[in-house]
Amino acid sequence: MFACIHGRSVSKLPAENGVAGSSLVDLAFTFSPLVEQTTADTVVFDVSGQDLLFGETSGSEIDADDAAIASANKLANEIVRRARDLSLAINVSVAANPDTAIHAARSFNGTTIINIGDEGLRLGALSTRQIDFSLAGIDGRRAEEIQETFSLWGVRTFGDLARLPLAGVAERLGQEGVRLRKLVRGKIDRHLNLVRPPIGFEQSLELEHPVEELEPLSFILSRLLNQICANLIEYALATNELKLRLVTEPRLVGIATGSNTDTNNSHLHERTITLPVPMRNPKTLLRLLLFDIEAQPPSAPIVAVTIRAEPVEPRASQTGLFIPLAPEPEKLEITLARLAKLVGPDNVGSPELLDTHRPDAFRMKRFRVASAKRKKNPNRQSAIGNRQCVMGFRVFRPPWRAKVETIHGQPARINASGRNSFNRVRGKVGCAAGPWRSSGDWWRPDVWARDEWDVAIVDANNQPSEVLCRIYRDLTNDEWFVAGIYD
């Protein structure tokens, strides 16, 4: 059995988020979880099994048909009563077919009960203008053409269309005509297009008592995350971003100055945790949130908590037999969070070169798992085959301080050593190329300016080999350094 509610005071224009339309859906959900919102002013729902609540008592001596009618009447009266409490003016119909119930609720005022087998009889007097062509899968333009055809045929009512021979209707109107004939006779058997409740990837909780310590807050966060992750798993999704909003108690303003301004608005502490890979493990997400709160604790007791997860497709990976095992991304993320707590978030991650000419300029960015495949370089094989075209540069970090003698501004002799006294570069400069001047960031306190040279140093012991290295002079303090050597 199906029941249909038609709101007489609800606009027929599409209003999916309208207040009245939502009220009809909420009213239907109080009777059944299987609800279809056909239009903004019409909802139909499955009421099978409602005779257990609205049927006759076991001691009454009535047959099955009378019991079904009595149960349907009680159900319809209860729907009308609850709609009256919500100040809704409605029509209610109950039938064995959802489309029959829809047409009856739209066409008849009050309460309508249609028994099984009486669909064609009760709907037969309705005009064909009242047919809902969308229930048969026919768009508006095609519906107008079929209405003109019905006018030419002299078909004015549901009954006229139901009495036409099936073969003739199929020959002239095709499958659309066959579906319309079944529709007006109440014989279409279809499933409801169910209203899906909103996906809850956001959970909020207002606290009765303010929370100041991390341990009681962790229980609250765990409760919210468990519900969010359960919703993600239900829809086969995961999340790569968590948004946490903490509402703290209002703080007194003006006490120090003696004024009477009592409070400031409640403070919002919002933070976003970006995950390297999609996750849906509540324990992992809880630990990441706690690490973040410990690093940046709120300044006042917490009175409300909201967590929102951005849903994404889950991570799908399959390792090969000959690929070494790697740590799980979830465990790696927790380890990185612990390290960030110890050494600071700016010292954990992956190095990223900056778009600048400043030597060795880089920053630490958040570690992410690269999913893109590496492109093959067609010139790589030729470069490997010709070893003579490959030259490496060994960078000294930190650079070696050097004493450089110059002649007419050009390096002539150098003496430099690293931290270890055995590592030395000294001798006469046999050949020099440069200088190459670079500078920048003059507006910052760590401005840089340097002259770089590539020099070939002849060893003082007159060895035949030469050392090719790069040296530079720091123009801000007029000191010389060895940046590295060429291999």
Give your account of this protein's structure:
- By secondary structure, this protein is α+β, with helices and mostly antiparallel strands.
- 30% of the residues lie in helices and 30% in strands.
- It has a six-stranded antiparallel β-barrel with strand order 12-13-14-15-16-17. A five-stranded mixed sheet has the order 2-3-1-4-5, sandwiched between helices. The protein has a four-stranded antiparallel sheet with strand order 6-9-7-8, covered by helices on one side.
- α9 (214-234) packs antiparallel against α10 (282-295) and α10 runs parallel beside α11 (329-343).
- The longest helix is centred in the first third of the chain and has 22 residues, at 64-85.
- It starts with a strand and ends with a strand.
- Residues 12-20, 57-61 and 253-265 have low confidence and may be disordered.
How many DSSP helices? 12
User: Would you tell me the overall average pLDDT?
Assistant: 80
What is the overall silhouette?
elongated
Helix content: 25-40%
> How are the strands ordered across the major sheet?
12-13-14-15-16-17
Return the structural class: alpha+beta
DSSP, total strands: 17
Sheet of most strands: 6 strands, antiparallel, barrel
Order of helices and strands: EHEEHHEHEHHHHEHEEHEHEEHEEEEEE
Q: Could you tell me how far the N terminus lies from the C terminus, measured between alpha carbons in angstroms?
A: 86 Å
Radius of gyration (CA) equals 40 Å
Low-confidence regions = 12-20, 57-61, 253-265
Fraction of residues in β-strands: 25-35%
